[in-house]
Design goal:
The chain is mainly alpha-helical and 119 residues long. It is built from four helices and no strands. Helix 1 (2-32) runs antiparallel to helix 2 (42-59), helix 2 runs antiparallel to helix 3 (63-82) and helix 3 (63-82) packs antiparallel against helix 4.
Length: 119
């Protein structure tokens, strides 16, 4: 019974997942501009990428390419900023970068998937 419900609604679940990741990543980018960050700096570039990727995920446009760009950015962020502070992602504050990276791998695999997705 449970598996039937999951299969029946998996398209909706994935849609909600894509929208939530898009909104969160968009907000992640917007917050970088809440302070006086130069758009030409690395933080400005990261914020711009996050806003563009977030919008692409929310709208369902070029989802795989946007997710690939987001995944690359999160790997770069993790290894440039967080990893040098230690191996543990909880203590080096790299957990969000790795969680976004994992989410982007799913988004790369499934793409935009039309609403509702029929099994």
């Amino acid at each position: 019974m449970k598996n039937e419900l999951i299969v029946k609604y998996r398209g909706y679940l994935y849609f909600v997942f894509r929208i939530l990741i898009g909104i969160l990543f968009f907000m992640h980018g917007i917050q970088k501009f809440s302070s006086s960050i130069n758009i030409m700096s690395l933080m400005g570039l990261a914020g711009t990428i996050e806003i563009i990727v977030g919008i692409a995920l929310i709208t369902g446009i070029l989802v795989r390419w946007a997710a690939l760009l987001g995944a690359i950015e999160m790997l770069v962020a993790y290894f440039m900023v967080h990893f040098p502070a230690g191996l543990n992602p909880i203590t080096n504050k790299g957990e969000p970068a790795l969680l976004f990276f994992a989410a982007f791998l799913i988004l790369i695999g499934y793409g935009s998937v039309k609403w509702p997705h029929k099994p």
